[in-house]
Design brief:
The protein is an all-alpha fold. It is 62% helix and 0% strand. It is built from 2 helices and no strands. Keywords: Membrane, Transmembrane, Transmembrane helix. The chain crosses the membrane at residues 12-34, 46-66.
């Protein structure tokens, strides 16, 4: 399996990035709405917003993997995709 693309693993990483990122953003967002903690010190204020930042990074990573080009599967025969004009 070395050198071959693993499509299922990539799909699982994309799904986990979207699901985990949106979950962190929604849960932490509601927590911050319910108890904003305006009187907290700066380190506590920053640590309360850390899950929100991690969720944004997870979603950005999932979009990065989603936009990354898919490698050709070496097990499939070569097509004439490069020769699309029919010549």
């Amino acid at each position: 399996m070395a050198g071959q693309p693993n499509y299922l693993r990539r799909l699982m990483l994309i799904g986990a990035g979207f699901l985990g990122g949106f979950t962190l953003i929604i849960v932490d967002g509601w927590t911050l709405i319910i108890d904003p903690g305006d009187a907290d010190s700066w380190p506590v204020w920053l640590s309360r917003r850390l899950p929100l930042l991690i969720g944004i990074v997870c979603i950005a990573g999932a979009f990065f993997l989603l936009r990354k080009p898919v490698e050709n599967d070496p097990d499939l025969p070569a097509d004439d995709l490069e020769n699309m004009d029919g010549a």
